[in-house]
């Protein structure tokens, strides 16, 4: 009834099936690599945001220290004892090691969230007399000619690792 007809098979279906499997495998591997890259990018973004937040907190701590009026220009010197520098070193940032000896630490952050506690330095820049139209926060009410001390506050924050670093600066005027 049924005749066995032997037809020579060339294997075209097998070849097409293997090519489709190869293409699907390449798409899967590329998707996995893309997903891994996106995960790394998200982690690095989080790390840099943590570094920015720690640097901002240290910067605010330095400004708060100046705002409390517990410092005077005589506290600042070339050696930067306790992170307080005078204006004699123009290259302060390039020579700073951010250690306990040459900067101040801000400990308001949980150490498990950051690689190293944020640190800051304060550099006394100069003194100037207040202009009558000075619009710096809290100093617009000053009498013209009042002496204002100018300070540069520099803060360094790290993220989850010490490899991520953010350095911020602000100029602060205090009577």
Q: Domains counted in the coordinates: how many?
A: 1
Number of helices: 2
Number of strands: 5
Task: Determine the fraction of residues in helical runs and give it as a percent range.
Answer: 25-40%
- Rounded mean pLDDT is 80
Please state roughly what percent of the residues sit in beta strands, choosing from under 5%, 5-15%, 15-25%, 25-35%, 35-45% or over 45%.
15-25%
Which structural category do the helix and sheet elements fall into? alpha+beta
Give the N-terminus to C-terminus distance in angstroms.
112 Å
Shape: rod-shaped
Order of helices and strands: HEHEEEE
Radius of gyration: 31 Å
Biggest sheet overview: 5 strands, mixed
Are there runs of 5+ residues with pLDDT below 50, and where?
none
How would you describe this structure to a colleague?
- By secondary structure, the chain is of the alpha+beta class.
- The chain has one domain (12-174).
- Helix content is 34%, strand content 21%.
- It has helices at 12-67, 92-95; strands at residues 84-85, 104-105, 119-129, 147-158, 165-174.
- Strands 1, 2, 3, 4 and 5 form a five-stranded mixed β-sheet that branches.
- β4 and β5 form a beta hairpin.
- The longest helix has 56 residues, at 12-67.
- It starts with 11 loop residues before the first helix and ends with a strand.
